[in-house]
Recover the amino acids of this structure.
């Protein structure tokens, strides 16, 4: 037990040893400084610890501005994990992090980003700007999960705001060549494209629309869903001229 | 008894004096050997590129070949922007490069690097720190 306490004290002393304004970078295979090009090349088992974020990766290019201490942009490769003080956990094969404008771009298979209650997954790319709230997901079957909302598509663009320390999605645009999916606790929606506006409490679905709610399946070309009262309006274009409602039984 | 004490005193004095002389001559001999071992004492070189001049100093230096010099003890690379210190550095005066495999410290404004060696190439534009390396930035 004593040893355990000693270890805890040593670890906390180590953590406290780092000044609040200091950034500590350690590597196993050295650092190269390119003075003219203004970047550090950090090699193997790179760990960066600063007051606002921590990062681990195998290879890191850290760009500095005027002076060597003024790091403005980080490009990291292989098994990258970025954790920010604001609650973001980003993981992927490549992470590009702009410190000044808080922009994070994750590339490669199994890219993921967790920002409090917002979870993003992609096999191509995820981009998020924590300052403006803008985000972009690219790649087949990219996923966005926010509380009881689950979205999939090959293009997911949107904005979020921090509302009392809770991330709320304000607008969304979803697109997929084959099918997008928006699933809430009560409605399951399919289409080729979709728009969401929190301000108007409205989800719009375009092309090959299919909505499953309780025991009903509604098919059409265009749909409007009011997210407050969950009312659904489905229409068809002039060429197809059909809206189908299928009633299914629980049995 | 008095004679015996006097004898003992004189003998001790002679012994101490002799030892001191021998020690001094040994130190002088070592210094002389050192001087003979080192081709240059307090060598000064420069590395220069378009933007900066890096002054290279050390306590001792040995010519390995016409352009290769092994700098030893308090080796210091100093420019307007940074300084690098190490205990032993192989300096190539012709190609304007330097290499060390001993503990290295780098200092610049709000920046400190400690490593297990370093290489300077591209006339001082590229600085490479080898082995397990720690970089501390103060902002």
């Amino acid at each position: 037990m004593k040893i355990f306490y000693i270890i805890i004290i040593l670890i906390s002393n180590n953590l406290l040893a780092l000044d609040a304004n200091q950034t500590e970078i350690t590597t196993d295979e050295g650092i190269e400084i390119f003075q003219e090009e203004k970047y550090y090349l950090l090699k193997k088992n790179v760990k960066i610890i600063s007051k606002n974020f921590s990062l681990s990766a195998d290879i890191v290019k850290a760009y500095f501005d005027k002076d060597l201490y003024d790091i403005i942009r980080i490009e990291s490769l292989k098994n990258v994990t970025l954790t920010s003080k604001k609650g973001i956990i980003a993981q992927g094969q490549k992470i590009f992090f702009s410190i000044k404008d808080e922009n994070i771009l994750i590339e490669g298979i199994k890219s993921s980003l967790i920002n409090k209650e917002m979870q993003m997954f992609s096999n191509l790319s995820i981009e998020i700007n924590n300052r403006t709230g803008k985000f972009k997901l690219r790649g087949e079957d990219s996923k966005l999960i926010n509380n009881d909302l689950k979205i999939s598509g090959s293009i997911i663009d949107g904005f979020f705001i921090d509302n009392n320390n809770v991330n709320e999605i304000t607008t969304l645009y979803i697109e997929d060549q084959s099918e997008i999916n928006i699933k809430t606790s009560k409605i399951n929606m399919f289409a080729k494209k979709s728009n969401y506006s929190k301000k108007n409490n409205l989800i719009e679905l375009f092309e090959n629309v299919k909505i499953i709610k309780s025991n009903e399946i509604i098919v059409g070309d265009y749909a409007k869903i009011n997210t407050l009262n969950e009312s659904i309006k489905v229409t068809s274009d002039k060429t197809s001229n059909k809206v189908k409602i299928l009633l299914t039984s629980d049995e | 008894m008095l004679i015996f004490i006097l004898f003992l005193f004189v003998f001790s004095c002679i012994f101490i004096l002799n030892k001191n002389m021998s020690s001094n001559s040994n130190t002088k001999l070592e210094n002389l050997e050192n001087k003979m071992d080192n081709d240059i004492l307090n060598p000064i070189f420069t590395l220069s590129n378009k933007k900066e001049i890096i002054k290279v100093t050390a306590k001792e230096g040995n010519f390995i070949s016409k352009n290769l010099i092994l700098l030893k003890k308090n080796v210091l690379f100093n420019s307007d922007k940074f300084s690098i210190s190490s205990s032993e550095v192989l300096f190539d005066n012709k190609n304007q490069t330097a290499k060390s495999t001993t503990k290295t410290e780098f200092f610049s404004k709000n920046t400190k690097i400690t490593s297990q060696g370093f290489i300077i190439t591209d006339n001082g534009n590229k600085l490479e720190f080898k082995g397990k390396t720690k970089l501390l930035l103060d902002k």
User: Anything to note?
Assistant: The radius of gyration of chain B is 23 Å. The mean pLDDT of chain B is 82. Chain B touches chain A at residues 51, 81-82, 108-111, 113, 115, 124-139 (CB under 8 Å).
